[in-house]
Amino acid sequence: MDSNAMVWFRKGLRIHDNPALDLARRGSKHLFPVFVLDPAYLDPDPSAFSPGSARSGLNRIRFLLESLSDLDSSLNKLGSRLLVLRGDPVPVLSRILKDWNIGTLCFEFDTEPYSQARDNQVKDFASRFGIRVFSPVSHTLFNPADIIEQNGGKPPLTYQAFVKVAGQPHPPLAETYSCLPPIGDLHGYELLDIPRIDELGYGDISQEEFSPIRGGESEALKRLKESLKNKEWVAKFEKPKGDPSAFLKPATTVLSPYLKFGCLSSRYFYQCLQNVYKAVGKHTSPPVSLVGQLLWREFFYTVAFGTPHFDQMKGNKICKQIPWNDNEGLLVAWREGQTGYPWIDAIMIQLKKWGWMHHLARHSVACFLTRGDLFIHWEKGRDVFERQLIDSDWAINNGNWLWLSCSSFFYQYHRIYSPTTFGKKYDPDGKFIRHFLPVLKDMPKEYIYEPWSAPLSVQEKAKCIIGRDYPKPVVDHAIASKECKRRIGEAYALKLSGDSTEIEEKLSGLQRKLEEDDKDISKHMSLKQRRIANNCLQEAEVKADGVDH
Ligand SMILES: Cc1cc2nc3c(=O)[nH]c(=O)nc-3n(C[C@H](O)[C@H](O)[C@H](O)COP(=O)(O)OP(=O)(O)OC[C@H]3O[C@@H](n4cnc5c(N)ncnc54)[C@H](O)[C@@H]3O)c2cc1C
Questions:
Q1: Rounded distance from Cα 255 to ligand 1 centre (Å)
Q2: Which positions does the site annotation Electron transfer via tryptophanyl radical cover (predicted)?
Q3: Domain range annotation of the chain
Q4: Interhelix angle for 58-77 vs 378-388, to 10°?
Q5: Which residue's CA lies nearest to atom 31 of ligand 1?
Q6: Of 20, 56, 289, 308, which cross-links 106 as Cys (Cβ 3.0–4.6 Å)?
Q7: DSSP category for residue 323
Q8: Which of 99, 112, 436, 418 is nearest to 247 (CA)?
Q9: pLDDT tens for residues 507-518?
Q10: Would the pLDDT of 479 be above 50?
Q11: What homologous superfamily is domain 1-138 in, according to CATH?
Q12: Are 230 and 375 in contact (CB under 8 A)?
């Protein structure tokens, strides 16, 4: 009982089922619970978006700060506190490990490439100074490395194959604590109070810009309890059924932000679901059940961990090589909710305001950006989601973009979400659109999904003139979707995957051919169609190279 131990929180912002915390507290005289605010995370790339959207990522950062406050107050109740420092974690950790005379360092295993590189540096430093390091797996149900090993050294590339090898996860830790070892001498270190969002350069932020999704373990456990209260609902849960437009009472659990930051343990969630299933008897099964959703998460974590360059097209062996367009104007229109398709735009505004959208809403906008309408690279859409989603998660986000763009896992590129009829099935009155796009709040329901088709007198009455108060559609879906299918079909026919000069040459050749075909197609377009197409091209010219990474 003579060593100082440190638990380094990154994700895993919780007390329950936290093996790193549990290992650190055992046998230590002093326990230092540390969180390092990493500037790279607080603002991964401030120049990525235009000045008007400098507050992107706000909801995610606010969620993080709330989670830290909640963790701090839980630690206070156990006689401890969260020690918050700021800076590049590697030098910060290296200093405090020495200065606080730490003998044991514990942190949760993290599979993201950025985290792996960071953690390896910290491990190297620790081993040079004889500090013991424990890095248990607890962010996921399974250790992705174990699944890959059981699968003969390769990640299973289908959900079914994954489920076959996965088996049962370990149960969560049962320990609860009444106190933790005290913090030792800080040797004069100045610690930060957990900053407020406005102290991180986000400026003066009005309440209305805030997401209703609040951070922290206490919120996570409350939401979990609330979600599982209706046992019948849990037992009958069947995704992709469910209304993507339901925003007052979402059709799914909205636990993804809590799983992402580890405010909620996936193993605990899994166990609670099993308890409900036992109590109810009959229930749905994977892939559509709630347990099935957790297994989707595991599936993407495993493939991401075992696939080099998983987050890009180039050099990624499981990714179809497709000559995507590079069109900044269309990308901006999509990102800012200005495509002229209210269903798409309302979802993108929900993303900006809430940092969360329903799964099928994500499907709609991801399909629209890539293989459905705009033919823009999935990596561009991934970047926007990564910045704006509270639950943005490296493995899951990339995995789903690969899926939705028909670049991997799913190849039925002729199945496209309609930006006008898909949402209408769930929400014929357009309540979701009226909420997130108040400019259309008085548009009659017959026109709410296609306001450009409303007669001028109707637009005037609704105080929304299309082309002035709300944009005209940036593309004609009927034409654009056909064109996307043709392009993907041609790219698939080349059977390109991986990374070589030959592939790049073939892709450029295909791009040139597609551009020639575009010219032919435009000859057959009606005047109205050409006008719509020109509208979208005014902002940014379609560049010739098309395979920009
Ligand atoms: C283009 C695109 C990008 C996405 N990016 C992310 C992301 O960055 N982070 C993220 O957590 N989810 C992402 N998803 C997956 C999914 O949309 C969300 O996990 C889900 O909508 C979160 O809501 P929920 O917690 O209510 O889900 P529920 O339906 O209640 O499911 C419970 C949990 O299961 C997991 N889960 C559900 N669906 C999926 C899925 N398709 N893939 C992997 N895990 C899943 C999540 O952890 C979720 O919280 C993305 C989906 C698409 C189509």
A1: 9
A2: 324, 378, 401
A3: 1-138, 140-174+218-304, 328-539
A4: 40
A5: 293
A6: 20
A7: -
A8: 436
A9: 666 666 666 655
A10: yes
A11: HUPs (3.40.50.620)
A12: no
CATH for 328-539?
1.10.579.10
Question: Which residue ranges make up the annotated binding site?
Answer: 252-256, 293-300, 391-393
Q: What is the mean pLDDT of residues 162-175?
A: 96
Check if the beta carbon of residue 170 is closer than 8 Å to that of residue 44.
no
Section 70-91 average pLDDT = 97
Q: What is the pLDDT of residue 199?
A: 81
Q: How far is the CA of 267 from the centre of ligand 1 (A)?
A: 16
The least confident of 36-40, 108-112, 318-322, 410-414 is 36-40
Is 34 strand, coil or helix? strand
Pocket of ligand 1 (CB under 6 A): 239, 252-256, 259-260, 293-294, 296-297, 300, 358-359, 362-363, 366, 385, 389, 391-393, 396-397, 400-401, 404
Q: What is d(CA 436, CA 451) in angstroms, rounded to the nearest whole number?
A: 15
Span between the terminal Cα atoms of the chain, in Å: 53
CATH architecture of 140-174+218-304: Alpha Horseshoe (1.25)
Whether a cis peptide bond, with omega within 30° of 0, leads into 287 is yes
User: What pTM was computed for the model?
Assistant: 0.91
Interval 188-199 mean pLDDT? 85
3-state secondary structure of 35: strand
Residue range 95-117: average pLDDT? 96
- Choose the residue to mutate in 293, 294, 344, 363 for probing ligand 1, maximizing ligand atoms within 8 Å of C-beta: 293
Position 329: which residue type? Answer: G
**Residue 31 bridge partners (DSSP):** 5
Q: Among 224, 396, 403, 404, which residue has the most ligand 1 atoms within 8 Å of its CB, making it the best to mutate?
A: 396
Phi and psi of 395, rounded to 5°?
Answer: -70, -45
Distances (CA, A) of 533 to 88, 471, 474, 486: 47, 13, 7, 18
Q: How many CB atoms lie within 10 A of CB 538?
A: 9
Contacts of residues 114-121 at CB distance under 8 Å and 24 or more positions apart, as own/partner, are 114/40, 114/394, 115/10, 118/89, 118/90, 121/90
CA distance 62 to 390: 9
Is pLDDT above 90 for 201?
A: no
207: CA distance to ligand 1 center in Å?
26
* pLDDT above 80 (res 532): no
At 409, list the tokens.
């896992």
Taking the alpha carbons of 162, 163, 167, 168 in that order, is the dihedral positive or negative? positive
The half-sphere exposure of 545 on its side-chain side, counting CA atoms within 13 A, is: 4
Annotated binding residues for FAD, as ranges?
252-256, 293-300, 391-393
User: From CA 257, how far away is CA 202, in angstroms rounded?
Assistant: 21
Residue 521 in this model has a pLDDT that exceeds 50: no
Residue located nearest, by CA, to atom 45 of ligand 1: 297
User: Using an 8 Å Cβ cutoff, are 292 and 275 in contact?
Assistant: no
- Which residue from 314, 397, 404 is spatially nearest to 360, judged by alpha carbons? 404
Helix (H) or strand (E) holding 144: helix 144-150
- Quick check: helix, strand or coil at residue 81? coil
Region at 498 (left for phi over 0; alpha for psi -120 to 50; beta for the rest): left
Task: Calculate how far, in angstroms, residue 437's C-alpha sits from the geometric centre of ligand 1.
Answer: 24
